[in-house]
Amino acid sequence: MVMVMEVVKIDSQGRIVIPKSLREKKGLNDEVEILEMEEGIILRPKKGKSWDEILSKKIKVDWHNALTVSLESLSIDDIILG
């Protein structure tokens, strides 16, 4: 069920203010994901880190020897639990 809670204006720079009570209720704190749907746009709290974000901090790449990746001292728990 979809219900209109409030109508807000879009400012000249394309910004909107999401009411504080709604941000708190839906957990919209730091970063949000924007999903484009046929019916409109959905904002939701950013989920955990992407694989790119996780792996970029965990895997050491030797750029002098292309495609050489160092996985020594790295366990699957290190990657997943970061």
Write the layout of secondary structure elements.
Layout: H1 20-26, E1 32-37, E2 40-45, H2 51-58, E3 60-62, E4 68-70, H3 76-81
Antiparallel strand pairs: 1-2, 3-4
Explained architecture:
With 82 residues, this protein is of the alpha+beta class. The protein folds into two domains: 1-46, Ribbon (Pemi-like Protein 1, Chain: D), CATH 2.10.260.10; 51-81, no CATH class. The chain is built from three helices and four strands. It has a two-stranded antiparallel ribbon with strand order 1-2. The model has no long low-confidence stretch (mean pLDDT 78).
Summary?
The chain contains 3 helices and 4 strands. It is α+β, with helices and mostly antiparallel strands and 82 residues long.
Name its key features.
alpha+beta, 3 helices, elongated, 2 domains, 82 residues
Cα-atom Rg, whole angstroms?
Answer: 20 Å
CATH class of the largest domain: Mainly Beta
Mean pLDDT: 78
From the N-terminal CA to the C-terminal CA, the straight-line distance is 37 Å
Alpha-beta content class: alpha+beta
Helix content: 25-40%
Task: Strand order, main sheet: write it out.
Answer: 1-2
From the 3D structure, determine the CATH topology of the largest domain.
Answer: Pemi-like Protein 1, Chain: D
Number of helices: 3
Main pleated-sheet profile: 2 strands, antiparallel
Mind telling me which CATH architecture of the largest domain this is?
A: Ribbon
Low-confidence stretches: none
- Portion in strands: 15-25%
Count of DSSP strands: 4
Shape category: elongated
Number of domain modules: 2
Order of helices and strands: HEEHEEH
